[in-house]
Amino acid sequence: MPELPEVETIRAALAPLLVGRTVLAADAHPSPKFAAAPAASGQRVTAVRRRGKYLLADLAGPDGRARELVIHLGMTGQLGADLDPTGPYARAWWRLDDGSTLVYRDVRRFGRIAVVDAGDHRSLPTLDALGPEPFGADFTPDGLWRALARSGARVKTQLLGQRVVAGVGNIYADEALWRAGIHPGARRVGRARAERLHTAVRGALALGLANGGTTLRDYRTVSGEPGRNQDQLACYGRAGHPCRRCGTTLRRAVVDARGTTWCPRCQRA
DNA sequence: GGCTGGCCCTGTACGC
DNA sequence: TGCGTACAGGGCCAGC
């Protein structure tokens, strides 16, 4: 389940392999989720960026039109030059002018690939309405407090919604709420707790970034290596184990259809 | 317009 | 051993 730290780790490794390269040929699984991949053929990659959990490769075509190759890895998406383009779960591949082939593999097919005019994200509603980058200057404690106060939805649901902040998924949402001492089902978050949550979101994501991402099952870096952050998780996946802050047994429940772990003492409802 | 819940998708784990 | 079922969850969309 690649979230911001995992996608950023992949982006950093992918950029030197792709920037300056021209896509000579491409093919994709017929599913509408991936069928756009060949539209990158004939285009030169000028940059590889990330926005939230989306990878964006800037493309320059011979017609002078600027486009973007947009890739969302979904739950089980992987990108690599060493993957088999004829393998059973390969959903798309792009052959580059240096002889290498970038392969997109996605067992559960929750990912998505699109090629759009630069900056035109209307066909991708979540990307189009994405909130601030968590390490950007426009992600502020006050802005987070105001954004949370505008909605009556549960705080975890809001974090996962990508509007109050971009790039947070189930793992880092649980970690951030644990760090901030906020119950995932809370519907009202005061200014002080919003400030703690702001710090906690950045802290949880920064730790994930420093460790090259969290590998629970599928996530691999571009070179096929697992992340190291799974050993650092304080909350997610630790239900039934003692809280590392107070020793209380962590609980698990489903919050808005997402498995959720929290400490009933540190994170009171 | 915002919230909620269902659906997509397939490997894995578990119970019978 | 083999089969059936539940579960995992990000994004999208229909319904309220």
Care to give the gist of this entry?
This protein is α+β, with helices and mostly antiparallel strands.
Radius of gyration: 19 Å
- Strands, count: 10
Question: Strand pairing plus helix content: what structural class?
Answer: alpha+beta
Query: H/E order of the elements?
Result: HEEEEEEEEHHHHHEE
* Strand line-up of the largest beta sheet: 1-6-7-5
* Amount of helix: 10-25%
Rounded average pLDDT: 89
Largest sheet: number of strands, sense, barrel closure: 4 strands, antiparallel
* Total helical segments: 6
Q: Flag low-confidence runs.
A: none
Shape: globular
Terminal Cα span? 27 Å
Proportion of beta-strand residues:
15-25%
What does this structure look like?
- By secondary structure, the protein is of the alpha+beta class.
- It has helices at residues 4-18, 125-128, 141-149, 155-160, 170-180, 191-210, and strands at residues 23-28, 44-51, 54-60, 66-72, 77-80, 90-96, 101-106, 112-117, 251-255, 258-262.
- Strands 1-6-7-5 form a four-stranded antiparallel β-sheet, with helices on one face. A four-stranded antiparallel β-sheet has the order 2-3-4-8, covered by helices on one side. The protein has a two-stranded antiparallel sheet with strand order 9-10.
- A hairpin with a 5-residue loop joins β3 and β4.
- α1 (4-18) packs across α6 (191-210) and α3 crosses α6.
- It is globular and about 60 Å long.
- The mean pLDDT is 89.
- It binds a DNA duplex (16 and 16 nucleotides) through loops.
Which helices and strands occur, and which strands form pairs?
Blueprint: H1 4-18, E1 23-28, E2 44-51, E3 54-60, E4 66-72, E5 77-80, E6 90-96, E7 101-106, E8 112-117, H2 125-128, H3 141-149, H4 155-160, H5 170-180, H6 191-210, E9 251-255, E10 258-262
Antiparallel strand pairs: 1-6, 2-3, 3-4, 4-8, 5-7, 6-7, 9-10
Helix pairs in contact: 1-6, 3-6, 5-6
The chain binds a DNA duplex (16 and 16 nucleotides) through loops.
